[in-house]
Amino acid sequence: MPYVDGFVLAVPTANLERYKEIARLAGDIWKEYGAVSYVECIGDDVPYGELTSFPRAVQAKEDETVVFSWITYESREQRDAINDKVMKDPRLAGEQWKGVFDAKRMIYGGFQSFMTL
User: Fold this and answer.
1) Is 97 helix (H, G, I), strand (E, B) or coil?
2) Residue ranges of the domains in the chain?
3) Is the pTM of this model over 0.85?
4) How confident is residue 13, by pLDDT bands cut at 50, 70 and 90?
């Protein structure tokens, strides 16, 4: 079963095109190092819930769009090795992400799959 890294974040709507450019680069790099798949989704039906919701989870503001992303790997071990390489890759270093979104409000984690239909 694949191993999955999942992400939810809020991107200022004015920065969506810049986010997409950087995400395309990041996706190419993850795939180059061995990720099975890399998916980025822009929220278009993400209601603000009374108790919980994607917008609440990332403290999305009126002028922000929720982004939901995931990367799949063959195993947790491969994910750890791939992520180590990605984090050291100079193409993702520097200031290019600065100001595109608030990383402090990003939610992320690794998940072991138990079912795929």
Assistant:
1) coil
2) 3-92+106-112
3) yes
4) very high
